[in-house]
Amino acid sequence: MRTEALVVLGLAALGAPVLAQLAPRFEEPSPLHVGDRARLVLVVDVAPDVPVLVTPTHEGRAVEVVRGRLARADALEPDARPLRFPVPIVARERGAGVVRARVTSFVCEGDDCRPTEGEARVALRVE
Question: N or C: which end of the chain has fewer CB within 10 A?
Fold first, then answer.
């Protein structure tokens, strides 16, 4: 696991106070059919010099998240603002499912950095 992810995880696990909430969001997904392998795009606006950890999960059996952790280096353009993360999924069966992504990062003022987090959610339908 990358060092930046370990730092973010360590601070989150210690229960460090959260300064501000992030507002990540998923772009509108394409239609899904059973067997599709797709990527949901998660948009996160954070400063360019802070680490970012994205932890996607799924609910239900219709879709499955293929990769459980993403860092800044996994973004489509790691130096861009906002960052766009491709979250890989597989459409397993017909029905409804939900994909969530918890994002952990930092907000800094000078040398004072504090952890911040947010969550995005998207409901999906597999045909």
Answer: N
- The DSSP bridge partners found for residue 106 are 115
Task: Report which DSSP code applies to 74.
Answer: G
Beta strands in the chain (DSSP E): 25-26, 37-44, 53-59, 63-65, 70-71, 83-91, 95-109, 112-126
Q: What is the pLDDT of residues 34-62, one digit of tens each?
A: 999 999 999 999 999 899 999 999 999 99
Nearest residue to 9 via CA among 120, 84, 105, 107: 105
Query: With DSSP H G I counted as helix, E B as strand and the rest as coil, what are the percentages for the chain, rounded to 5?
Result: 10, 50, 40
The C-alpha atoms of residue 53 and residue 90 are separated, in whole angstroms, by 21
Q: Please give the backbone phi and psi of residue 115, each rounded to the nearest 5 degrees, phi first.
A: -70, 150
